[in-house]
Design a protein that fits this description.
Elements: H1 3-30, H2 33-57, E1 64-70, E2 80-81, E3 84-85, H3 86-100, E4 106-110, H4 120-130, E5 134-141, E6 151-155, H5 166-181, E7 185-190, H6 196-199, H7 201-204, E8 210-217, H8 221-227, H9 230-255
Parallel strand pairs: 1-4, 1-5, 5-8, 6-7
Antiparallel strand pairs: 2-3, 6-8
Bound molecules: zinc ion.
């Protein structure tokens, strides 16, 4: 082999080595926790702005506007159990609510369309853009006692619209969802001072009738299996829509 060829081979090997080190570093930077958070914030911002612009461009009229909040999302998974994440079930139920609603008087919007993690401020921005008549917040729960199962709803008893109190809305949503899923109704709880207020302050501080529905326990094997099926999530959504219809009927009557 000529000297020239050897030099070329050495240069190529050095360049390949440098490129490898570069790619390795790029990868490390790209997958660092900071980079993951920045990417999530960017994606969340893009999706959030799309939702806001769709709301502004929306010319359809409905008598009642309902905002559904699929809690958590992105790096905030909520409760988890065996690979099933609360954030995904919350989103699925919220999307079914929007898509399965056939009542022309009611239009349902959601605070996130995909696996993004909007901040409380971003979710509040959607609420302000819509000025909804009702807010329904969706969660799943988990408990150290695996036998605990069923649904419950939290509400803020401190503020309420006298045409429809938060307690009444919580009760209507819970009864609706239990009627279609046949799961146990644990009850409605005044959560004025509790931790939920920290998670969704924008809902709890609004004067709009609102309730948080906890649609099942990921820690209960039977309920987990049910929550993993689309049919069961559709039943939850249909039941919550029934609750919304009942709430809207009460608002209707109070207006006449
Ligand atoms: Zn949650």
């Amino acid at each position: 082999m000529s000297k020239k060829k050897i030099v070329v081979i050495i240069i190529v090997v050095i360049l390949l080595g440098l490129a490898g080190v570069g790619i390795y570093h790029m990868e490390a930077i790209y997958s660092s926790p900071e980079a993951v958070i920045i990417r999530e914030m960017q994606l969340t911002k893009e999706c959030h702005e799309k939702i806001l612009s769709d709301i502004k461009a929306d010319t359809t009229h409905a008598d009642y506007v309902v905002l559904v909040n699929p809690s958590h999302g992105g790096s905030d998974t909520g409760m988890t159990s065996g690979g099933t994440k609360e954030k995904d079930i919350n989103l699925k139920v919220a999307r079914y609510m929007r898509d399965l609603n056939t009542n022309k008087k009611i239009k349902i919007y959601i605070t996130r369309e995909t696996d993004t993690n909007p901040s409380a401020e971003q979710r509040a921005e959607i609420m302000e853009a819509l000025n909804p008549d009702l807010i329904v917040d969706i969660h799943m729960d988990s408990d150290s006692t695996v036998s605990v199962m069923g649904m419950y709803a939290l509400y803020n008893g401190a503020y309420f619209d006298y045409h429809l109190t938060n307690e009444e809305l919580a009760d209507m949503l819970l009864r609706g969802a239990v009627s279609t899923t046949k799961t146990a109704a644990i009850g409605v709880v005044d959560d004025t001072m509790a931790v939920e207020r920290e998670i969704e302050p924008w809902i709890y501080e609004s004067r709009i009738p609102s309730a948080s529905v906890y649609c099942g326990y990921l820690s209960n094997p039977d309920e987990l299996q049910a929550l993993r099926s689309n049919a069961y999530c559709q039943n939850i959504a249909k039941g919550l829509i029934k609750g919304i219809e009942e709430a809207v009927d009460k608002l209707d009557k109070s207006e006449n």
